[in-house]
Design a protein that fits this description.
single chain; alpha/beta; Rossmann fold; Serine Threonine Protein Phosphatase 5, Tetratricopeptide repeat; DNA Cyclobutane Dipyrimidine Photolyase, subunit A, domain 3; six-stranded mixed sheet; 20 helices; globular
């Protein structure tokens, strides 16, 4: 059974006889998925069929073949697992506001279940679907351990304000998943979606290639999690700010695409018996920081622009808006790693080549874009565009909030005042040199 607090009914219609549909969006996995678990529960209670549908949009917020490839190959694996458990998987293509209601009507749907996504575009799609149906629509937060609407009903100021709320609720929500998703045999004959044909129809940037050696899917995510726990978790607290250490989990893309449940990772890490300081450090990032990002995007519609900053940050940036910039770079110069700063260039090329960037360097990278752009607004647009184009985990609340933290002081406090930054926290190359071997990092990426 699922904790009912994970579920929100989004309209007033009563359940009618007909298939239960799980509209999979953010959580693209068969196992450890509270939304699928709830949909299966509804279907069994009402003795009706259960279907899973995923709607593929032909282009999405700067996503390239790098991100689409990772997602589609993972979905293909999910389709296979669902089929093995007697749950048919439908891949639709087009605008969800049209294709989802058409599909639901075609099968005489009884109720639809969707997972939770705080981003504006996903919420618009959901609103469009809700306007066209006359049966129940449920949202289940299958991404956060503590559902976003449970942990807080407002924008939290910082980690220190949301942390005690999450910690208080973890005993209730950090529970184990059911062992099985198997469903009774259904009389459904459905051809598998053709991966190559699906790729060919996408209207996306194909110059940003898929990252070699990074295997998508839930199985690959679980293997990577096990490897991290066994070989790198003990040193995580020491190595997390050293990009030369290889000490991170590498799991961010799997969390982003929902191929691995953060709750599964938390459960495995808690029972691992590894060094407490490192376990606590990783769980802070996995739970508190991730859920803080979802909170910000859920309750602040301006999470991706200047208006989303705190008043103190907007004031100080406005006061320094006309400060002289020692360097000014265009989007094209940033994208080609054409700045005067070898450390920044190395970070950019790490992202371009590997689809990821070490967390500490992401902050340095974004802050220097502020320093070398004509305005905070331009800096934020450039940072988001590059992040979403090259990062495997782009178009994510963590990414939007990371940029807003670096450029607009979100979830931070005011610091000493200086040119361009005002009271926004400053970072420089000398600070990086105190944390790790900068020359080695540059050599590895340039």
């Amino acid at each position: 059974m699922i904790n009912p607090a994970r579920v929100v009914k989004q309209n007033l219609f009563e359940t009618r006889k007909g298939p239960i549909v799980y509209w999979m969006q953010r959580d693209q996995r068969a196992f450890d998925n509270w939304a699928l678990i709830f949909a299966r529960q509804l279907a069994l209670e009402n003795n009706v069929p259960l279907y899973v549908v995923f709607n593929l949009v032909p282009d999405f917020l700067e996503a390239t073949v790098r991100q689409y490839g990772f997602m589609l190959r993972g979905l293909k694996q999910t389709e296979v697992i669902l089929s093995e458990n007697n749950i048919p998987f439908y891949l639709l293509e087009g605008s969800p506001g049209s294709t989802i209601p058409e599909f639901l009507k075609s099968i005489n749907c009884g109720s639809v279940v969707s997972d939770f996504n705080p981003l504006k575009i996903a919420r618009i799609w959901k609103k469009e679907v809700l306007a066209k149906i006359d049966f129940p629509f449920y949202t289940v937060d299958a991404h956060n351990i503590v559902p976003a609407w449970v942990v807080s009903q407002k924008t939290e100021f910082a980690a220190y304000t949301i942390r005690p709320k999450i910690n208080k609720l973890l005993p209730e929500f950090l529970d184990e998943f059911p062992d099985s998703i198997a469903f009774p045999k259904q009389n459904t004959s459905l051809p598998e979606f053709d991966l190559d044909k699906t790729f060919a129809k996408l209207n996306i940037n194909r110059e940003v290639k898929e990252v070699p050696g990074v295997n998508p899917g839930s199985e690959a995510g679980q293997i990577l999690l096990d490897n991290f726990i066994q070989h790198r978790l003990d040193e995580y607290s020491t190595n997390r700010n050293n990009p030369n250490s290889g000490g991170t989990s590498g799991l961010s893309p799997y969390y982003h695409f929902g191929q691995l449940a953060p709750q599964r990772a938390a459960l495995e890490i808690l029972k691992s018996g590894r060094t407490k300081i490192s376990v606590d450090a990783y769980l802070e990032e996995l739970i508190v920081r991730r859920e803080l990002s979802d909170n910000f995007c859920l309750y602040n519609k301006d999470y991706d622009n200047f208006n989303g900053y705190h008043d103190w940050a907007k004031l100080t940036l406005n006061q320094h808006r006309l400060d002289e910039r020692e360097y000014l770079y265009s989007l094209e110069q940033f994208e080609s790693a054409g700045t005067h700063d070898s450390l920044w260039n190395a970070a950019q090329m790490e992202m371009v080549n590997s689809g990821t960037m070490f967390g500490y360097m992401r902050m340095y990278w974004a802050k220097k874009i502020l320093e070398w752009s004509e305005s905070p607004e331009v800096a934020q647009k450039i940072a988001i565009r590059l992040n979403d184009k090259y990062q495997l985990d782009g178009r994510d609340p963590n990414g939007y909030v990371g940029v807003a933290w670096s450029i607009g002081g979100v979830h931070d406090r005011a610091w000493g005042e200086r040119a361009v930054y005002g009271k926004i926290r400053y970072m420089n190359a000398n600070g990086a040199k105190r944390k790790f071997d900068v020359a080695k990092y540059i050599e590895s990426n340039l």
